[in-house]
Amino acid sequence: MTGSVRVLIVDDDPLVRGALSMILGGVPDLTVVGEATDGAEVPAAVAAHAPDVVLMDIRMPRVDGLAATEALRATAEPPEVLVLTTFDADEQVLRALRAGASGFLLKDTPPAEIVAAVRRVAAGEATLSPAVTRKLIAHVTAAAPVPGPDPKRDRAVRLLGGLSEREREVALLLGRGRTNAEISAELFMSVATVKAYVSRLLTKLDLNNRVQVALLVQDADLV
């Protein structure tokens, strides 16, 4: 991105909003354009301030960050969403990622890492480390399978069935939480080629980030 990254902070805790504003406001290429105290305020705040990135708390009293994220990501040309949580393997985080959030930050994340995460999200990159991705995938895998018809599984199988053999191989490795470097070594291709395949997967599957690809693979029971 060029120019300053515009950030909207959404959190019901004034201390958290103040701390985030102080952290981000002191960075030359980031600008805090507004704040909201509840998910119900998000549509109007986004319309008024046109942020590039929304820092979204999950737990809020009226409309939580999950519902707000789902509604926001369903609009035309929405901003990127970075959810804030106190847990790193919460079912709510999975729901946010499925809704199209670009990742999440723990509320005790060091300031420098918060700044770096906002920059990555603004640049269109997911903010989940491979270790966190693996933890989330393990959380999904541990869930008991539901007997009988499973529309979510059927949809995932159908979508992945439309991939080329090589795209499918990359998707399966993403489903196992592999990094680009690990996929490169396993499939004997350059890291740049892996990145190109990941971008192609996101386009073909109409997804926002590699974590959603991994979750789709899990939905299809392929790993």
Automatic annotation (TrEMBL):
Organism: Micromonospora sediminicola
Keyword flag DNA-binding: yes
Modified residue annotations for 4-aspartylphosphate: D57
Keywords from the UniProt entry: DNA-binding, Phosphoprotein, Transcription, Transcription regulation
Gene3D superfamilies for this protein: 3.40.50.2300
The Response regulatory domain, residue ranges: 6-122
Annotated GO MF terms: DNA binding
Stretches assigned to the HTH luxR-type domain: 156-221
Descriptive protein name: Two component transcriptional regulator, LuxR family
GO biological process, one term: regulation of DNA-templated transcription
